[in-house]
Design brief:
The complex is a heterodimer of chains A (178) and B (111).
Chain A (H helix, E strand, L loop, with lengths): L36 H4 L33 H31 L8 H33 L8 H24 L1
Chain B lengths: L12 H28 L3 H35 L5 H27 L1
Helix pairs in contact in B: 1-2, 1-3, 2-3
The chains are: A mainly alpha (178), B mainly alpha (111).
């Protein structure tokens, strides 16, 4: 399954239709579509494709762009992979915590408080799981191209949500004890 | 960068990465076990997906080790491929487990 090098972004120079290519109005030309090698001659022989291949995969599951930049230092590739795995474990941990809250905890004084906490944790886990792969792929792209690593709002969101849930749980438990 | 005469990586990156895969496999096992348990309380889908998550966790333990052996070899020869199919599968599996957990949580709340 070789969809690793599906062109996914505009790169290189001359991001307009080649002058000698008759642009077919019906063919949805886009600057982000890799242009036929034989006509532009801009790419090396190892990179040539015979036909245009527009981007196909949705962003959430699109793999890193193996056809641009250079292979990063393997240590960075593995560090990025471990970071991805750490996010996956975070997601699974949030799922587990949410399920445990709902199934193992005694009922709290406020009706459905237990369920709301549990569902909030599992929902956060779902969000983290859904973003993890995309995040890994964009970091891998940045490493390949030597760009600064893109920032992420996920750690802040995670910390904020957990703080709110924890605080609310602490308040409810205090009420229960009094 | 990948000179054969050099001992690769005093930082034991490949080993740490293999251990991270192991922990992730165990996390799938834990989440799967909790899904199975929650499923017994009235959401049978949770039991099915939980059992699948347990199996996937076990497969990750094997895959992590296999991957380590491959990488240790290829690092000395020609660098490594990022290997997205396994990562994509892991990400998708985590999303499926999460969505099932969400469904089970909602079912237990409503039901």
């Amino acid at each position: 399954m070789d969809w690793t090098d599906v062109p996914t972004a505009c790169h290189g120079t001359g991001a307009g239709p080649p002058a000698d290519v008759a642009v077919d109005v019906g063919s949805a030309w886009s600057p982000c579509v890799e242009v036929d090698v034989e006509q532009t001659g801009q790419r090396g022989p190892g990179r040539r494709r015979q036909r245009e291949r527009p981007r196909q995969l949705p962003r959430a599951v699109r793999p890193p762009q193996r056809h641009v930049g250079e292979d990063p230092d393997p240590r960075f590739t593995m560090a990025n992979e471990r970071t991805f795995l750490a996010w996956i474990r975070t997601a699974l941990g949030l799922d587990a915590a949410g399920l445990a809250v709902i199934t193992l905890l005694p009922a709290l004084p406020v009706p459905y408080a237990r369920e709301v906490f549990g569902i909030a944790l599992v929902a956060l886990g779902t969000l983290v799981a859904a973003i993890s792969f995309r995040r890994w792929a964009s970091l891998e792209d940045a490493l390949r191209e030597g760009h600064p690593l893109p920032p992420s709002r996920l750690p802040g969101l995670l910390a904020g949500t957990l703080a709110v849930v924890s605080l609310a749980a602490a308040v409810l438990l205090t009420i229960e004890l009094l | 960068m990948n000179d054969r005469s050099r001992v690769f990586d005093p930082g034991l990156q490949a080993e740490r990465t293999a251990l991270a895969w192991d922990r992730t496999g165990l996390s799938f096992g834990l989440a799967g076990a909790l899904l199975v348990r929650a499923g017994t309380l009235g959401a049978p889908t949770g039991q099915v997906v939980g059992a699948a998550a347990l199996t996937f966790g076990a497969l990750l333990l094997i895959a992590g080790h296999t991957r380590y052996l491959q990488r240790d070899r290829s690092l000395r020869e020609h660098g490594i491929a990022p290997g997205h199919p396994l990562l994509l599968a892991t990400g998708v599996a985590a999303v499926l487990v999460s969505l099932t957990a969400l469904g089970v949580a909602l079912a237990l709340t409503v039901g």
